[in-house]
Amino acid sequence: MTEKNPTDTVQRETALNKALIAVFVVFGLNGLVFASWAARIPAAAQDLGIGAAGVGLLLLFSAIGSVTALPLAGSVAQRIGTAGTVRAGGITTSAASLIIAAGLYLGSIPLTAVGLLIFGVGIAGWDVAMNLEGADVERRLGRNIMPKFHGAFSGGSFVGALIGAGLSALGISLSLHLLAILTVVCIAVLIVPRNFLQLSHAVHGTDGTGAAVKPSRFGAWKEGRTLLIGVVVLGAALTEGAANDWVAKATVDGLGSSESAGAVMFATFVAAMTLTRWFGARLIDRMGRVPALRICMGASLVGLLLFVLAPNLPLAALGAVLWGIGAALGFPMGMSAAGEDPAHAAARVSVVSTIGYSAFFIGPPVLGFLGEHWGIRNSLLVVGAAMLLSIIFAPAAAEQKKVSIQEP
């Protein structure tokens, strides 16, 4: 038996701590970029002169970009590493923000749609890579940390929403807002991922004889458990995504409030989700993923109903809080479940992410179309069906036994 070198142990712990901080920052930046757009969707609708159905179709372009890129993101991360994929995604997203800003400034719907399509591609690669790195860090730490990573995303979204509300109140255009954000992001994504673990995720599992087995690129699409985890994440993603896309506009249209009030309502939702993600890991540790998931989705359903049926802003805000609490843990628990086995993490996270992000493909146009006929707030009731799906299939996300791996 060889003794562990204390110096090597310290170096590994130092590298892990640096990676931990880097993943937090990258998740936060991702949320900041996303909220910079989501919190000011009403402003974009006004700049382009479109209604709820038009916004829904416009958001569809972002979803198409994401759903197209997600199945390939795992393979890209295996080839160029998670750090390289985050950099590529961040730069792509920044370039897309520049196109979106130009489209809004010119009042061009086609140019804005192209920008959102590219935006979706960049966010998709960035998302899968940061979740892969997060799952790797979580596995090496030996405790639930993924909800806190997603809490950093929500925290970045909260900051982005507050910035959006402030700039909206000051009359600053969304075009200038996006230009400022993309400058910060471009610099940050080139620097922060340097502290990632920089390990290849193309690790191999072992068969019954101990021989290494390289997982099939598309094999994860044939795994029943992985597909069911995807359904759980689909419900959670639609629950979260519907709020991201429509809470601000539903507040403006459904309650006759100002654009600033809509941005604040979105910030309220995000704040509740952020706090739950930060402290929710304790709930998962005590109860396990399945009970925690079911409790959260139940709270989210109650919050959704209250938000839709509330006659005034205070009650709607209470509904947004419950909605945010409930929507907090589904997505990160799904990512943890998909990334438990590092030998298959890249493929499974890509599959689960693809299924989950299809909620953003289906949700915007459906909710936008229904919003034209029922009103945006009432159309959100269909999200309750997705919440029930997550509750029903929650057992798929249950913790699995440790697996044997060999890293090259």
TrEMBL record:
<feature type="transmembrane region" description="Helical">
    <location>
        <begin position="379"/>
        <end position="398"/>
    </location>
</feature>
<keyword id="KW-0472">Membrane</keyword>
<dbReference type="GO" id="GO:0005886">
    <property type="term" value="C:plasma membrane"/>
</dbReference>
<feature type="transmembrane region" description="Helical">
    <location>
        <begin position="226"/>
        <end position="243"/>
    </location>
</feature>
<feature type="transmembrane region" description="Helical">
    <location>
        <begin position="345"/>
        <end position="367"/>
    </location>
</feature>
<feature type="transmembrane region" description="Helical">
    <location>
        <begin position="20"/>
        <end position="38"/>
    </location>
</feature>
<protein>
    <submittedName>
        <fullName>MFS transporter</fullName>
    </submittedName>
</protein>
<feature type="transmembrane region" description="Helical">
    <location>
        <begin position="50"/>
        <end position="73"/>
    </location>
</feature>
<feature type="domain" description="Major facilitator superfamily (MFS) profile">
    <location>
        <begin position="19"/>
        <end position="402"/>
    </location>
</feature>
<feature type="transmembrane region" description="Helical">
    <location>
        <begin position="263"/>
        <end position="280"/>
    </location>
</feature>
<feature type="transmembrane region" description="Helical">
    <location>
        <begin position="111"/>
        <end position="129"/>
    </location>
</feature>
<feature type="transmembrane region" description="Helical">
    <location>
        <begin position="149"/>
        <end position="168"/>
    </location>
</feature>
<dbReference type="Pfam" id="PF07690">
    <property type="entry name" value="MFS_1"/>
</dbReference>
<dbReference type="InterPro" id="IPR036259">
    <property type="entry name" value="MFS_trans_sf"/>
</dbReference>
<feature type="transmembrane region" description="Helical">
    <location>
        <begin position="174"/>
        <end position="192"/>
    </location>
</feature>
<dbReference type="InterPro" id="IPR011701">
    <property type="entry name" value="MFS"/>
</dbReference>
<dbReference type="GO" id="GO:0022857">
    <property type="term" value="F:transmembrane transporter activity"/>
</dbReference>
<feature type="transmembrane region" description="Helical">
    <location>
        <begin position="85"/>
        <end position="105"/>
    </location>
</feature>
<dbReference type="InterPro" id="IPR051788">
    <property type="entry name" value="MFS_Transporter"/>
</dbReference>
<dbReference type="InterPro" id="IPR020846">
    <property type="entry name" value="MFS_dom"/>
</dbReference>
<keyword id="KW-1133">Transmembrane helix</keyword>
<keyword id="KW-0812">Transmembrane</keyword>
